[in-house]
Amino acid sequence: MDSTKPVALWIEPEPATRSEQLIAISTVCLIGVGMVLAVFHLFLMITGLVPINNGEWGFADVSYLALTALLSVLVLVHASLGEDALRPRTMIVLSSVIGGIGTLMALTKGWLMLIGLLYSDESWRESAVFALVVMSIVPFALPFASGVILARNDFEPVRWRVRAVSIAVGAAALIIMLAALIPRWARLAEKGVW
Questions:
Q1: Which residues of 145-173 are buried (b: 16+ CB within 10 A; e: fewer)?
Q2: Residue 37: phi, psi to the nearest 5?
Q3: What per-residue confidence (pLDDT) applies to 155?
Q4: Quick one: which H or E segment has residue 178?
Q5: If you placed Cys at 27, which of 59, 78, 183, 186 could pair as Cys (CB 3.0 to 4.6 Å)?
Q6: Average pLDDT, stretch 141-163?
């Protein structure tokens, strides 16, 4: 008579190596620095030190693309670590605190710009303001979404986690590109170019 052994539903993850722990701490810290830079960039825009050229490619668009690219690399590197090295809850808390401040600043800036456009004859500028607000929030939303994905799927294989975070990165890149292009398209359409 063969004895049947119960199938293990959960296996204790292998302890993270020292290098994995250092990489995990470094990536989380750099993600926090990237979000602080996004908040600082928003502050410069609110004070007027960073010019906003509606309908034209400028420093605001390029800098948000660069910040999103940097954060994308960091979250992908973090997702490729072992299960024991992940710090998803730290990433969620960090992005919630810093991202909450940044989101409030972005919404405030958007409302102030919309008030300034009440008597504007160019309706495409409103879409430019909405696009700028969306672009301002994406650098905070990406780490938060990645943290939620990793927290709910930390037991999954590394390849699956990286693939799931890659989808979030691709969505963030698509949102940034659409937010940068839609005001330009609206401006060209209003001028009758196409």
A1: bbbbbbeebbeeeeeebbebbeebbeebb
A2: -60, -40
A3: 76
A4: helix 158-190
A5: 78
A6: 87
Contact 129, 121 (CB under 8 A): no
Length of the chain: 194
Position with higher pLDDT, 88 vs 167: 167
Q: Which residue's structure tokens are 């780490």? A: 143
Q: Are 165 and 79 in contact (CB under 8 A)?
A: yes
Q: If pLDDT is split at 50, 70 and 90, which confidence band does 57 have?
A: low
Cβ pair 84, 154 in contact under 8 A? no
Alpha helices in 52-123 (DSSP H): 59-79, 88-116
Is residue 123 classed as helix, strand or coil in its secondary structure? coil
Tokens describing residue 154? 């930390």
Q: By C-alpha distance, which of 29, 14, 150, 137 is closest to 82?
A: 14
The C-alpha atoms of residue 171 and residue 42 are separated, in whole angstroms, by: 22
